[in-house]
């Protein structure tokens, strides 16, 4: 299918820095990104950051790719996170201008250092926000020790993208069963569990009142909203009816936070049935396109955008918002001709 006639920005496009496998080796920890692993088919493309990646973008009319590092179930230390950010900044500089931008990788186990690294990445390296794992070694971010990171993002006026990440504690509790260990891993991650984990990560942030504390905080959720749009009516109604009587003293409703603080991307969810729900539950300026390259294929993503128009889910103006305008506004990037 031919590329669209207007720009396209993709927001959850992965790379792998050699500093991360070295970090795992130094910790004597199995490398989750090894080619022998469940997603090893993508490892060569994750490392590649040049001609192959650009060729696929050009063939499919993708103007700008916002790159971020693949999940790290073993939280990175401060030095490794900084090295990853310097690495991707150098890779972006080595490619044609205007084709790549980046979300920062943060050492979330060390929140004060993570906040400092976010400021460095935005102010000195020109990054457009941060992408963090949905948990930090099993810990969620409603713990107030993590608040400096979110405060820094609000102060810088950049979004934090919460991306699913393996959670070993949850895996053993909910997903290990009468089948192979690899099936348990798949269930706990790509097939189901880590999308739920990312949704829980966001819900816990709301529950702890961080959006009252930081009303300007911007959050991005991938994979068509990590299940929340499909559960919106139930979740919002229960929170708004029940929580005021059981200790919830939120000054803003769940729906208000969803409409004002949250953006959603497609990231590899290319089903128009799912998207119909997302478009009903999200404001028109809050839905953005992403492919999840190289796990998702650029060709499939562009075909999906065309299907949105063909099936009447959006008009031309709505398609342009999803394909690039909403991302351009949120990230303050400018699509350049190429």
From TrEMBL:
Gene3D superfamilies, A to Z: Metal-dependent hydrolases
Family membership noted in the UniProt record: Belongs to the metallo-dependent hydrolases superfamily.
Any single biological process term in GO: secondary metabolic process
Cellular component terms (Gene Ontology): cytosol
The name this protein goes by in its record: Amidohydrolase 2
Residue ranges of the TM segments: none
MF terms (GO), sorted A to Z: carboxy-lyase activity; hydrolase activity
Residue ranges constituting the Amidohydrolase-related domain according to the UniProt record: 80-332
InterPro entries attached to this UniProt entry: ACMSD, Amidohydro-rel, Metal_Hydrolase
Keyword set, alphabetical order: Decarboxylase, Hydrolase, Lyase
